[in-house]
Structures are given as structure tokens and as C-alpha cells.
Amino acid sequence: MERDLEIYIHIPFCARKCGYCDFLSFPASEEAKERYVRALVRDILDEGTPAYAVRTVFMGGGTPSLLREGQTAEILEAVHRAFQVDRDAEVTIEANPGTLTKEKLRAYRQMGINRLSMGLQSVSDRELKLLGRIHTYQDFLDNYWEARRAGFDNINVDLMSALPGQTAADWREGLRRTAALEPEHISAYSLIVEEHTPFYERYGRDRERLERGEEPVFLPGEEEERRMYADTLEILSQAGYRRYEISNYARPGRECRHNKGYWKRTPYLGFGLGAASLLEGRRFRRVQEMGAFLERPGAREEETALSRQEEMEETLFLGLRLTKGVSEEEFFRLFGEPLDKAYEKPLEDMLRAGLLERREGWVRLTRRGIDVSNYVMAQFLL
Ligand code: SF4
Hints:
Largest sheet: 9 strands, mixed
Structural class: alpha/beta
Distance between the termini: 34 Å
Shape: globular
Strand content: 15-25%
Bound molecules: iron/sulfur cluster
CATH class of the largest domain: Alpha Beta
């Protein structure tokens, strides 16, 4: 029987770099994009195998919607030629507002893309400008309704909280306006001020203040951020969304199958610059330097065979991100050892502290545990 596989395809191009972004993405010429697509297609065809059944395909970035329709179609055709893709596979493309047209959206539908993930980030033009985004809120609305007209009935909208100068009231307003559009899925992450970004120059000091427990100048304080997180759950629950992962909310049955696969450690194969894979108990990535990638797009780096202990740790700290938690039965099936034996002390400590709960064969974070999830997960690194 074929085994499950997810495919991720990285498109590293963006119209312009956002001030907070540390992803592997950059602007590029049309020629450079074309060379990249050629290499990508070659790699997909070379790696193809009938040994797996592909359940999901995710084109992420970067801004995959910057590619021409013909290029996107070629990549997906290569996937279909090289792999057995389920007829009802979830096929997602990430798109930034301002890069979609009626023609492009219709072409996506025709090539079998059935899920659209839109990077809105904020409903405030002031905040969008501050983030360095290329679009306004109106650009997003235009693209969103055009996508609905093109037949997309599975749309995710990304929002970002804890922005400089943002209040909890601003954030609530953004959530309400987004929920009123009734997308099937909302991802709500908080801004992380990453090193080596323009934001770090501006707000790095603030980040340090926050880490020392002091009041920041531009960024929302710890208390305000916690409130934003609580408001997210409250507002989106009232609007009919269910939180299924620390930062992800969906209407019933509309969770992102692809991302759920990551948290459940379904094998995945990543194509494209720097794309990560988990396959046959090994983690590896494609090379991250463009020249090397174009020459040998299938070359791997950072390849490691995971030990049993590492697999156990991953099962815990990825699985606990899901509100459903980790199944004790599944853990035993995978490792031949009960969860409470493998992690006796941390499990007991976290249950006693009220940060984890154990119910009907599942172990999961409590509401309080979600607030300090990094701390809880760190306890399970043996
Ligand atoms: S659009 Fe996304 S990937 Fe591109 S620069 Fe902005 S945040 Fe980074």
C-alpha cells in the first residue's frame, strides 16, 4: 500500500522585501524566475516515485502568486507526472494581495488548485505600510472577492498581531472585519522581531526590553499581547471558528490538512530553494544558495537521520501544538513504550502545574499551558 506524502514547493520571490521578514525570499527578474522554474521542474521529475500517495500539495514562499500562470501550471503538471496525487488532494497556493487577477485565479482553479492562502496581515493601511507590504486593505478585498467569484471556497487569511503601535482594540477590529468576510480559515500569528531585518534595527531594543520583563516603547507590552491572544480566541469562536492549533482557526472541517500533517509528522518532500523534507526518518533540505540550487536542484544539505529519541521529542513538541494534543495510543504504536513511561517526570510536573491535561487517551495543553507553550514543550526535550 502506498504511504502518505505531502509535497511543499518553495517559490522564493517577492515583489519587495517586507521590513520584518527573515524568510528565504527576495525580488528577482523574469529571467531569474524562469531559470528557477526550469530547475524546480527538473528536480520534481527526477525525484518522482509511485511509492507514495500525495495527499496535499502546498506552494509557499515568498510569493508564489508572482509566477505567471503558465509557470505555476508547469510545476503542478510535473508533480502530477512524477507522483500519484489523490484526486481529492488539498492543493494550496499562497498569494499576496495585489498579485492576483481574475485570469490568474481562474487559471488556478483549472489547474486543480483548490485552496488559497492570502497574506493580509492587517486591515489598517497604516500598519500595512509600516510592515512594508505592497498592498492596501482595499487591494486585499478586491482580490478576495475576485477569488470567491473564481470559485475558491476554501480561503485562508493570515493576520499578524503585536505590531508596533498596535493596541488590543486595533487588533479586535481587524479580527472582526476579517471574520465578517467569512474565510474558511484564519491564521493569527504575532510579530516576531527577527535579527538581520530592518525591523530589528528599529525594534530590536524593544524586543530586548520585553525579554527583560520591562515595558517596551513601540511594541505592545506582555500584558497587552496576552490580551490580544485571548481576544483572538473569543472573537473567532463567536464567529464560528474553532482553534485547532496554537495560532490557527478554522470553520468545522476546514483545517489546513497540509499543516496538520507537519504537526503530526506525516512524511513530506520539499522542493525548491532551502525547502525542508521529512522522509524515511530523515530530515534534510534543498540547498539555500541560488547558484548551487540551479546547478543541482536535487542536492541535499543538513541531512540527519533522526534517532528514536528525537522522533519522540518531535512527536511531543509538534503534536502539542494541536489543541487535540497527542494520542497516547498512537505514541505507544509508534515507539512501543507508553507516553507516561517515556516522559514520566515532565508529564507529571506539567499535569500538576495545570499546564497539560489528560483526557480520554489524549494529552494536551490547557488554556494556561497555551500561554506558555514554549516552556511546556521545552520540558519534553530529554
Ligand atoms: S511577502 Fe511574505 S515572504 Fe515576501 S517579503 Fe513579505 S513577509 Fe517575506
